[in-house]
């Protein structure tokens, strides 16, 4: 279990559930699209403050982004 | 809501529930006690890999460490 992949997979799933593009999420967070793309692929070792920021952008709780079960079943 | 304080408060609560000292958790993680102390006080902007490491050391799921409700009610 790579927590970066769990986090990225959940972020992607929540983004798609909201019908948002990577660009739209990037704009909400004030980062560029490449960062969102790389994060969703599990390539970013995000910090707590970034986790909080993306949870706000995706309208979920920070803990939801680390949920291993959700990541396995639904992504 | 400062996610660093939620995280630190939960980490402290889980550590005490296990009856472990900060030293013991630091040893399990291969870090020094000052890092655990500062993390529990919400002063560390921990990364995903550190969150995973401390979840292992405290025998909880990474998502449990970001649970806002648990942090408010029980810490």
From TrEMBL, chains A, B:
Alphabetized InterPro entries for the sequence: Cro/C1-type_HTH, Lambda_DNA-bd_dom_sf, TransReg_Diox_bact_type
One Pfam family it belongs to: HTH_3
The keyword DNA-binding belongs to this UniProt entry's keyword annotation: yes
Gene Ontology cellular component list: cytosol
One GO MF term: DNA binding
Gene3D superfamilies according to UniProt: lambda repressor-like DNA-binding domains
Chain ranges of the HTH cro/C1-type domain: 12-65
Assigned keywords, A-Z: DNA-binding
Keyword flag DNA-binding: yes
Alphabetized PANTHER family for the sequence: HTH-TYPE TRANSCRIPTIONAL REGULATOR, METHYLPHOSPHONATE SYNTHASE
Name the record gives this protein: Transcriptional regulator
Organism (species): Bradyrhizobium betae
């Amino acid at each position: 279990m790579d927590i970066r992949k769990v986090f990225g997979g959940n972020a992607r799933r929540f983004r798609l559930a909201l019908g948002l593009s990577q660009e739209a999420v990037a704009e909400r967070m004030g980062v560029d699209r490449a960062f969102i793309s790389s994060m969703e692929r599990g390539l970013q070792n995000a910090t707590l403050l970034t986790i909080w920021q993306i949870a706000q952008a995706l309208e979920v709780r920070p803990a939801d982004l680390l949920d291993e079960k959700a990541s396995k079943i639904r992504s």
